[in-house]
Design a protein that fits this description.
heterodimer, A: 166 residues, two-stranded antiparallel ribbon, 5 helices, 33% helix, B: 138 residues, alpha+beta, 4-stranded mixed beta sheet, two-stranded antiparallel sheet, globular
């Protein structure tokens, strides 16, 4: 399922800030500077991604982020220390003043998917706008799995060795 | 330019004027201002300095490494500072955090009457970390 809030506008390049000194590696790899009276502040795309992922996880009914394959790969990469579970299933496009967020969710069985999706969207907008100052133009949500409370116990049950009949 | 004198003693125990074991006896103004910035980061709640991949964002201060601070002599006879930090979740607005650490850095320089040597102070946010990572990765 994918829902679109509004069309994205004004995706600008990081090079919008003109001075040569501002063209650092950080800026080139996808960070966006924010204007300030006292100096310049630059927020990396990874920060926006992390904020969106953490915000989504705050919403009751969200079991996990990412699809089954993404989670499996994420679990492996996290175990070897090269991945971060909090950003799996989240991608962002960040402009000079705006951001668009795409995310994939697993929702707990029994929850209303539209209500959880709306709550996630609201929480992401609140957190990203409040923390980064960027305006969120879109939050596209794909729900691609349901979590059943017994899912984690399946293997244990199968391996318990207890007789199924007396 | 190198200076070996200190303008005045600052009461703050975390001040960059405090003698540091392993620091070079003569301190360039670049390193002095990097220390000021490092102190300012350490004093700001919800911020954590990051040296980045391969420790590229740091300033060497004798045997000590001032992680997250890059200080460069600018063309206008001032030192430009770049502060590389992570925010601790849940962070305050990042612009507010940036202003706070920037003003602390400027304040440290003013206390030592060295604010005339300080150029721009740029703040780069690279990541958001959980509170339990605050000490683990510092």
């Amino acid at each position: 399922m994918a829902e679109t809030q509004s069309p994205s506008e004004g995706q600008s390049t990081p090079g919008a800030q003109s001075s040569a000194r501002e063209s650092t590696d950080v800026t080139r790899r996808g960070s966006e500077p924010l204007a300030s009276d006292a100096g310049q502040t630059t927020i990396a795309d990874a920060v926006v991604t992390k904020v969106a992922g953490l915000a989504a996880r705050e919403v009751p009914g969200v079991h996990d982020l990412g699809g089954g394959a993404t989670r499996a790969i994420g679990n492996v990469s996290q175990r070897v220390g090269i991945g971060d579970q909090r950003t799996q299933g989240v991608s962002v496009e960040v402009g000079e003043r705006e951001a668009a967020v795409d995310l994939t969710l697993t929702i707990e069985y029994g929850e209303s998917i539209p209500q959880v999706a709306d709550a996630v969207r609201e929480q992401i907008v609140k957190r990203v706008e409040g923390i980064t100052g960027l305006s969120v133009t879109e939050v596209n949500i794909a729900v691609n799995d349901l979590y059943f409370p017994g899912d984690d116990d399946d293997d244990q049950g199968a391996d318990s060795g207890e007789p199924r009949v007396s | 330019m190198t200076t070996t004198t200190r303008a005045r003693t600052v009461a703050n125990p975390a001040s960059p004027d405090r003698p540091v074991a392993g620091a070079a006896p003569a301190t360039t103004r670049r390193v002095w201002l990097a220390r000021a910035a490092s102190t300012a980061i350490a004093q700001t709640d919800d911020l954590r300095a990051t040296a980045g991949p391969q420790g590229r964002w740091r300033t060497l201060d004798g045997a000590r490494s001032l992680d997250g601070v890059v200080a460069i002599e600018g063309g206008d006879d001032r030192v430009e500072l770049a502060l590389h930090v992570d925010a601790v979740w849940p962070p305050r607005p990042l612009a507010e955090l940036a202003d706070e650490v920037r003003l602390r850095t400027i304040g440290e320089a003013e206390n030592a009457e060295r604010d005339g040597e300080l150029g721009s102070v740029r703040v780069f946010f690279h990541d958001v970390v959980d509170p339990d990572q605050r000490t683990a990765r510092r």
